């Protein structure tokens, strides 16, 4: 590695940088997972975690990655052979519907171009056509981390209502929670899926399901086999401030501290900061003469920006040059976007100057990798960040 003094720039869209306060909070002795100290921690946390989901309903916390929380949402609410409506917004939406199919669900997978979010009109049309109410759930990825496109969760809720359809609404907020405005209760989401290592600024290892009363009722008759992910024994144990298994105790200390940091900044400010960083990044990309992957002004992600390179360039080569020369990690193109895009993560623990450094590193790396760009990108980003 040519230069490696100073901190590594981890500008992938998750896992993200963990604040020092969170690292310190986790550097504690492990405690008795059935003792009074743990039960006080759990009682406090299960309340404190609610505002970031925009909910007053229970949040189930798993020692799992986000993929586990996906599975939990499906197996707790659905039965073998149930139809679910999914949308091809990108790599993560594709993986989630593959999981649904493997679990024995019948997936209606609406094709997409990986440059748009879920179209609320399409949701309404599909559900209105399902007069027999065979579709049991609509699954949407809020922020498609592979494309930098954010679907409009509130508008999709209105589309479901406009169709008068009773399907459950399951939403993946894995890379949007703590970055982009989100309202589980207000938007009538039935299960919100999330995890620790993106906007929540924690290491990987915690998965979340925020659960509506309707989802809880569905879980009483849902027939998919489940054991570890079953909500019922967890919610029962939670009343006593415990879990039916050993929790990731030290990650929970980290979660308590990360939530404290988020709420101290204030969620509206956190969302505005992400939107501002995203806009500054797009200003740089536009000034370079490159293209942002997202095509709809209403759907730009606040968490990351995917940059499309001209056909003749390999985005993985650009990333490699930037890593070797400037010690900065950027996100790779996933699935059908491999080699075509790189992704700049600007989510989580990030200030204006970190973003400015990130943009500078990308601009220098593009030049070194032989991608001709207008050097006005940095200035465009700084102009945006420097506005009063
Ligand atoms: C990262 C991510 C996942 C997968 O989460 P894991 O923790 O890797 O299992 C799923 N969905 C989205 C939108 C993601 O960004």
From TrEMBL:
The modification N6-(pyridoxal phosphate)lysine is found at residue 198. Its cofactor is pyridoxal 5'-phosphate. The keyword Cell wall biogenesis/degradation does not apply. Keywords: Aminotransferase, Pyridoxal phosphate, Pyruvate, Transferase. One of its GO terms (biological process) is glycine biosynthetic process, by transamination of glyoxylate. Signal peptide: none annotated. Transmembrane segments: none annotated. Residues 10-309 form the Aminotransferase class V domain. Substrate binds at residue 343. It comes from the Bacteria. InterPro entries: Aminotrans_V_dom, PyrdxlP-dep_Trfase, PyrdxlP-dep_Trfase_major, PyrdxlP-dep_Trfase_small, SP_NH2Trfase/AEP_transaminase. GO terms for molecular function: alanine-glyoxylate transaminase activity; L-serine-pyruvate transaminase activity. The keyword Glycoprotein does not apply. Soluble hydrogenase catalyzes both production and consumption of hydrogen from suitable artificial electron donors or acceptors. This subunit catalyzes the tritium-exchange activity. Belongs to the class-V pyridoxal-phosphate-dependent aminotransferase family. Heterodimer of a large and a small subunit. This is Tritium exchange subunit.
